[in-house]
Amino acid sequence: MLGYGYILSEQYQKNSDRKTESKEHRIFQQFITRQNFGRFYLQHRYRIEERFINDDISYRFRYFLALNIPINKKTMVENTIYLSTYNEIFINGQSPVFDRNRLYGGLGYNINKNFKFELGYMSQMIESSQRSQFQIILFNNLSLSK
User: From CA 68, how far away is CA 108, in angstroms rounded?
Assistant: First the structure.
């Protein structure tokens, strides 16, 4: 898969209420594989990003491993409640090599073959800091082809 993202970031300057704006254009290529072992559903995602930030270019590599486990049914079918967890590591193509690591855990509901919903908590470790956030996620898997 090939994709594009535009990210506008505003970071606070140290000891100030002022922000520094950063504009990023991101092109990425990714490959996703899915496997299931009994009740365990695994997903691997390998991604390479070309990041154009302000007037600079950088490269980043990402690996994402997710696990979903149905609770009230044996498989991920309609009306399934499931546990969801993932870990994603970000590696820079230049120094510093470590960019960040995201660890997530949540509870999901598989509405039907096209939609699922999750509530979860993500902890994100960045080079010299850490932050956490609650997440509300709606996934859709709509196909435009017949």
Answer: 9
